[in-house]
Structure formats: C-alpha cells, structure tokens
Design brief:
Strand content: 35-45%
CATH superfamily of the largest domain: Galactose-binding domain-like
Number of domains: 3
Order of helices and strands: HEEEEEEEHEEEEEEEEEEEEEEHEEEEE
Structural class: mainly beta
CATH class of the largest domain: Mainly Beta
CATH topology of the largest domain: Jelly Rolls
Radius of gyration: 31 Å
Shape: elongated
C-alpha cells in the first residue's frame, strides 16, 4: 500500500511538471490605459522621461521604444517607478519615443509619442577634449570624459601605399579623464586618425593629425648589470624611519637580479631579502649611456599582484659617475595606482589585466642622459608606509635614445 501511494504521488508530480509553462501570469485581456503628462529631461546621448501612471490594477510596467542606428531599442520600468531613461543616441537630433502601458497579460496600450532632443553624447564631448602630442615611439593622447561613459578611443594610421586607414590601437575607459600612449612607430611624419566609439556603436568624427614620433629604442637587457655593493649608496630623502642607512639588499634564494631582465613574466623574477629597512637601493649599469624615455614593469603574478613585495612607491635616480655619492639626480618618482581602488587581495578583472599587460611610466622629457640608474624602493603594497619590507618584480624593460 505504501508503494502504491508513493507511485501516485510521483505521477501527480510528473503531471504537474508537464503542465508548467511560461505564459503571462494573468489572462486578463483588457488593455491598460496609456500613461499621461509625459515630459523629459535631456541627458548626454539620452533623456530621462517622466510620466503619470494610469489608475489601472492590471498595469505591470511601462515600456519605451525608439530607433537608434536603424535598430529598435526598448527600455522598461516597473509600475513602482514614474520615469525611465532612454539612451544610446549618437547626436542631438530630434527623436520620437513611444511609451506603452503593459498589463500582466502582456497587453500593450496605445502608444504615447514624445519628441526628445538629447544633449551632446559622450563621443562628441570626449572627441573635442582630445589633446595629442608627439612622444617617444609614437603619440600621447589626453582626454576628458566628465560623464564617465564607457567608451573606446580608436587610433588609426594612414597607409599611403594602400590608401586606407589601418587600426593600430584602441583604448577602453570609463574614467572621467586620463591619457594613453601609442608606441612602436617610426620617427617620421605620420598621419594619425583618432575617433571615439560608445557601446551602442556610435562613432564621433575622426580627428586627423600629422605627428612625428620621437626616436627611441629598447635597451639591450643583456647589457644591464647589477651594481649592488660595487659603489657607495646615496643617502637621499626619504631615509629609513629607523634612522639607519639606506638598505643594501641581497637576493632571496634563487631570485637573482638578472631574472628581472630575462624576458620571462610570471611568478618569477628578482626578489630581495626580506625585512629590510626601507627604502631599498638597487643600482644598475645600463651598459650604455642613454637619454631615457620610458620604462615598463611587470609585477610578480600568480596571486601576488598589488600585494606582497610588488612595488607601491619608488624613485629612479641616475648618474654618470657612480663613485661620487653626490652625483646622483632624481629622474622619476612614482606611486602605483590600482585601477579599481579595491583593498589588498580584492582585484577586479581590470586590475588583473593591467598587471598582466605591464605598467608603463615615462621619464621627464628633459631627463639627462645617464649610464647608471638606481631603483629606490620606498614601500611595497604589503607594507605601505612601513618601516620594513622587501622588493620583487617579475620583469622590467627600458627605452631611450642611446648616445
């Protein structure tokens, strides 16, 4: 008898499953009354539309439809709201938005048409803000994005032989301002084209400009040699909080100096001994005298990015006479910025990608040519403003004009 009851229950359950459907939750066929008193507030590339709801118990939501770039788009807002936002317009032309009241049975009211005229979209605002200057190996572009719109700034190069534009770079951002560099270009006059695109595939007009990149080349990593203990270490501010001399570090296990210039990126590289007074001074011989243009660093990866001994604040000093402790001059001073601003061990997708791609920094355009440089490690991510610490990097590349 017990088995019979169980079988009956299973049969009922199976029958219930077969009857499941995704039909509207109401079969009320009445069409709801339309919204009224529709007005709008213009926004960059869009508009906030406000309206009065009908007194209708069958109302589920309000829907807006409109055409952008030949495609009909739709926005919805529940009956708890009295407004909705339409966006994705690529200019300040007049557009028609149709508003519908929709019932629980998915019955739509007659449309209420509203003419809107958006403010200038982000693609135009960002495009007008572009400031392009010649840089080492390419160009440097600054931009303003006051509405923090998600945009892509595309960079083209005119191919004279093919008589066409060729894409050479793309910068994605949602920051309110910033800059980026395009590298790897010859030191000859080049016609560049820069445009802005948004997530609705709206494009700004293309800014055409001729610039001549400044010559540079990557320094030969095989020529860069460790200078620790070979020459006196300059005692320059900031000094260790302990009152002792600037630290002179050794290697941790097999993490030797040369591994910072072996072309391998990952959970490897140069690693100093730990629990040293900071700052830590790491001098090196470049093997050539060069007017330095930029450098790129790759943090130790695999769970260590923006943490442990990866550098947070540092300085780079240079000289042509390392025997003279007073000859060193400050070339660059930096504090690494984590893109997301999140705390330690909480990394966004962008944080991970930026660390994997390497982080690039430019030397001042008027920096003197030097043969010797020194990395002055002030603190790491795991001991910001700390008394003790250590330093590690997976890889470093340096560019400049060899003299």
């Amino acid at each position: 008898m017990k088995q019979l009851i169980i079988c009956l229950l299973l049969a009922v359950a199976l029958a219930a499953c077969k009857e499941d459907s995704f039909a509207p939750i109401s079969k009320d066929g009445n069409v709801p009354q339309p919204v009224s008193n529709a007005t709008y507030e213009a926004m960059p590339g869009g508009a906030k539309i406000s309206y009065s709801l009908p007194d209708d118990q069958n109302l589920a939501y309000v829907k807006a439809t409109y055409d952008v770039n030949g495609e009909t788009r739709e926005m919805k807002s529940s009956f708890y709201q009295r407004s909705l936002v339409v966006e994705g317009f690529g200019n300040t032309s007049e557009y028609t938005v149709k508003l519908y009241s929709v019932s629980y049975a998915e019955k739509a009211s007659a449309p209420v048409e509203l003419k809107i005229r958006p403010l200038a979209p982000a693609i135009d605002t960002v495009r007008k803000s572009l400031d392009i200057v010649e840089s080492f190996g390419g160009i440097n572009t600054r931009f303003q994005n006051p509405n923090k719109a998600s945009i892509m700034i595309g960079v083209l190069r005119w191919d004279e032989a093919q008589q066409e534009w060729v894409s050479i770079d793309a910068h994605y951002t949602a920051l309110d301002s910033g800059k980026f560099s395009v590298r790897g270009q010859e030191a000859v006059p080049i016609k560049f084209g820069i445009f802005v695109r948004d997530r609705w595939n709206n494009h700004s007009d293309t800014l055409e400009i001729v610039k001549t990149p400044i010559y540079e080349e990557e320094l030969d990593k095989d020529k860069i040699k460790d200078m620790r203990k070979k020459y006196p270490i300059p005692q320059r501010e900031p000094l260790p909080k302990s009152g002792g001399p600037v630290a002179e570090p050794g290697n941790l296990s097999s993490w030797k100096f040369d591994a910072m210039f072996d072309g391998t990126i990952g959970n490897n590289g140069f690693h100093t001994t730990e629990n040293k007074d900071v700052p830590i001074w790491i001098p090196m011989d470049l093997g050539v005298t060069a007017r330095l243009s930029r450098y790129k660093i790759w943090q130790r990866q695999s769970g260590y990015i923006y943490n442990h001994g990866n550098p947070h604040q540092w300085e780079i000093w240079g000289t042509n006479n390392p025997k003279d402790v007073n000859s060193w001059v400050l070339l660059d001073a930096r504090i690494m910025v984590k893109p997301s601003g999140r705390p330690l061990s909480d990394n966004s997708t962008e944080d991970v990608q930026v660390a994997a791609n390497g982080q690039e920094y430019e030397f001042p355009i008027d920096a003197p040519a030097v043969r010797y440089i020194a990395w002055k490690h002030i603190d790491s991510w795991a001991s910001i403003e700390g008394y003790l610490g250590h330093f590690h990097l997976s890889e470093m590349s340096i560019w400049g004009q060899i003299k």
